[in-house]
Structures are given as structure tokens and as C-alpha cells.
Amino acid sequence: MIRVAVVDDQDLVRAGFVMLLRSAGEIEVVGEARDGLEAIALCRRTAPDIVLMDVRMPHLDGLSASRTILADPACQGTKVVVLTTFDDDDLVLEALRSGASGFLLKETRPAQLLEAIEVVAAGEALLHPRITRRLIERFAALPDARPGTADDGLTERERDVLRAVAQGLSNQEIAARLHLGYGTVKTHVSHLLTKLGCRDRAQLVMYAYESGVAVPGAS
């Protein structure tokens, strides 16, 4: 069972998410919260696998709550999926830097939300497709976007895999593009996470573009 906490200040929205999640056979809703402070207390008490986190809430916003939860030893292993109606580039960047493993718009279809929970619970990261495109466009507009030369200890093959991750490719798609075995790609991704100190693929994407290892628009 995937244990999920639902955080949203709107009662009807929160109730809708809870009803949807409880309809899925392999998801257990461990609790609900109406703001960031309640979310922190709930997560410390229940240590959920996934937190569906709203952003704009009273008392404490979702991003501040996410940073506190992800840094708390009592919540070790908890992952955050940010859900919002706001399609804002700065908000996405801040969410990823706060440690969120997913960022979805509330317009996401129910089946996609359930799939996102399964993907993030399995250790992957997930961004709404429109958000991914806009992030890449934002990095493309940076005046110093160029191949990175930092001594990060990566092999050339690991850099190839990192560039493919930054383009949003799955492990299977990376294996096909680079003519590698699926297991080999999984190993490379695991090594990248360890070497770069990233918690998941979302942070790998951030690193790739911010360091210049990946350049928007490059094949």
C-alpha cells in the first residue's frame, strides 16, 4: 500500500482528492491537513510515503511546509507532490529546490494523478508536461547556457545519461537512445543521484541545466 497524506485548504478540493485516492486499491489515505502547520504535524505523526501538497495556504505555505517535512528525520522516505492551480515558472523552480519530487496542476486528470503517485512512490520524479516545456524554455533563455566544465566526477557516459534525463526521457527511452541495457541505465542514474547528492530525477534535471551539462534545444 502507498500511504498518502492530502494537504489543501479548500474542503471540497481536499474531499475530492481523498475520495479519488480511496477508490484506488493500492493507496491508503493516512490523513488530511488544511494548512502547512497541520501538514507538518500530520507527517511527523504518520510518516506517509507521499504528501499531496497545495501551495497557497494560510498560516504556512506548502513550499515552506515541504522543506520542513523533507528535512525532518521523522519523515525520512516521505516524498512531496505539489498540486496547484498556479502555472508559474518561479513557483516550479522553488518547489523543486524545496525537494518536491513532483509538480502537477490541479487540472490533471484523475488517472494521471493516480499514476503520478505510483511513479513518485517508486522513486521517480514527475512534472506536468506543460511545466517541463516551460522550464526548458526558461533555461534556454539564460545568457550563459553552455556546456558545463565543472569537475563533478562524472564519466562521459554518465553525462550522456544525465542529458537524456534532463530531456524528460524514461530509463527505457534512454536505453534505446544510447544503445544500453535497461539495467545499465538504472545503474547510471543511481550513480548520478549519489555523486551529485540529488534526491530524485527532478533534482537531476535542475542540476543538468543549472550546471550547463544539458543545454536546452541541444540533441
UniProtKB/TrEMBL annotation:
It comes from Kribbella jiaozuonensis. Transmembrane segments: none annotated. Residues 147-212 form the HTH luxR-type domain. CDD domains: LuxR_C_like, REC_NarL-like. GO terms for molecular function: DNA binding. The keyword Phosphoprotein applies. SMART domains: HTH_LUXR (SM00421), REC (SM00448). InterPro entries: CheY-like_superfamily, NreC/VraR/RcsB-like_REC, Sig_transdc_resp-reg_C-effctor, Sig_transdc_resp-reg_receiver, Tscrpt_reg_LuxR_C, WalR-like. Coiled coil: none annotated. The modification 4-aspartylphosphate is found at D54. This is Response regulator transcription factor.
